[in-house]
Amino acid sequence: MKIPRLSNSILRDQFIWMMITGFLAGLIFPFFIVLLGIPQEKVMTPLFFGASIMAGLAMGLLNFGLVHFVTRPTLKELGEKMDTVRKRLDEQMTSEASKSKKMDTCLEAQECVVHIRSRDELGQVAGAFNKLVQTLRESLEIQHSYQRFSAAVNSTLELKALGEEVMDILRDYQLANGMAIIVYDNQQDALKTVYASGINHPEWLVNKVQVIEAVEKGRSESIELPLDVEVDAVLATVQPRFVDILPIEFKGMRIGALVLARLQPLEKKQQIILSLLQKGLGLAIRNALTHEEIQRIAVLDGLTGIYNRRFGMQRLHEEFGRAQRSKTPLALIMLDIDHFKSINDTYGHPVGDRAIKLVVKLGKTVLREGDILVRYGGEEFMIVLPGAAIDDAVKVAERLRHKVTETLLLHGDQQIHLTVSLGVAGYPALEVADEDALIALADEALYKAKESGRNRVVDARYLEGAQAATS
Ligand SMILES: Nc1nc2c(ncn2[C@@H]2O[C@H](COP(=O)(O)OP(=O)(O)OP(=O)(O)O)[C@@H](O)[C@H]2O)c(=O)[nH]1
Q1: Which of 109, 178, 297, 346 shows its CA 20 to 30 Å from the CA of 134?
Q2: Could you say which of 155, 172, 193 is where a domain stops?
Q3: Structure confidence by residue, pLDDT tens digits, 427-448
Q4: Ligand 1 residue neighbourhood (C-beta within 6 Å)
Q5: Are residue 20 and residue 82 in the same domain, yes or no?
Q6: Which residue lies with its CA nearest to atom 16 of ligand 1?
Q7: Domain encompassing residue 461
Q8: Does residue 295 fall inside a structural domain?
Q9: Phi/psi of residue 378, each to 5°?
Q10: Torsion of CA 200, 201, 203, 207, to 10 degrees
């Protein structure tokens, strides 16, 4: 039934209709009384009519009072809460709020929840509103977590920084108390833990069957009450209740696994967040690994894996500056394999390459930590020895020369004898102005070593005119 509208307010209409029905009820009430057999002269009097109409109006007023004091507050509260939710959502949409670590939507607090006062339709509306707000909050949380994750992923290309950002998010959303990122290392042809936080002995993870299967077969695994994983809690080491091993894929290619240790189970919303992070992590890790590889390639020589000339020169420049500032010595050795062309010509280029690698391998055995071995040219090497006096560098050069002489390069059943010539220079024994002058002197000494018969070390201090060159 459609009741005609009298004003633009439903409650006001209700009031008017209640008063009209009250009035009409009061008006027809005396006629009913007559029908029931009460004498007309007692009922059909202005006084009785007046009293009856007043009673009808009072009834209308009472009914409206009930609507006003019971129904109206619930509707009013609902309206206000809706408005609060809308305002909070608006605030949340601003870029600053979406960047913040924690989402502040009030959507769970009393501020946005309607009290359920009845089991009728109004109660149902209030309950549905609360559930709607809850769903809204959860979907916002998911969206917010993903925004944070995307921002974190885009902010860095370093694996460690990426791991820290991801761990932060996992902790904030209570997705994990500890985490490890394991990737397949092409260089080593093995799994490698590239980031770990909160898990004790993460290096063991690469040997776990479940981790290997996650990487090799893309199989996820959730282990309840694992016996062999420990989480590093704030004050103590605890056993996590759950460990998830999730494969990380990029464009359908399995590139690693994510290991998460947790003390409590995940809710549905957390599972959604986790699966979104898992999907996004593939690209992020791939980018970080590519970045690492590019950096490695940019500084390393492809054949030997030691520093290339460009990076070696940069390092020498830094070390020379440091030596000058701190007035500490710095030595430089230039090394060249003798008659290398004839090794190439006699045995072929691949054997020449092996000879270069062998010299590098022997070079590493005589150097200390902090010494810098550089492939300077084809079969020429530069060794920077920060903190070493020229006498010490000469000893190192001699030791290396001996090692090379004593070591045979095997090619089938042939034994190839290698020798090297070395030139040594040092600062401040030689008062050079910059590292280029130091290289020039070490190079000159090397030339002298070649000229005077090869397989020897020449100290640049004893070069003819060396003083002149340094003054
Ligand atoms: N196999 C191989 N050979 C290289 C590489 N880089 C440079 N060479 C070769 O190294 C040789 C260098 O020869 P030279 O500069 O004439 O010197 P050498 O034969 O060692 O003679 P001395 O230095 O005077 O004892 C050249 O034949 C280059 O082609 C490399 O990466 N691998």
Answers
A1: 178
A2: 155
A3: 999 999 999 999 999 999 999 9
A4: 303, 336-341, 344, 349, 352-353, 356, 378-379, 450, 454
A5: yes
A6: 341
A7: 309-470
A8: no
A9: -50, -70
A10: -100
